[in-house]
Amino acid sequence: MARPLIVLASTSRYRRELLERLHWPFEVHAPQVDETALPSEAPRETALRLARDKAANVATHFSGAIVIGSDQTVDLNGVALGKPLSHKAALAQLQSLQGHTAVFYTALAVNGPALNSIQIDCVPTTVTFRNLPTAQLEAYLRADQPYDCAGAAKIESLGIALIQSVKSDDPTALIGLPLIRLTSMLASAGIDVLGRP
Question: At what angle are helices 87-97 and 134-144 packed, to 10 degrees?
Answer without folding.
Answer: 130
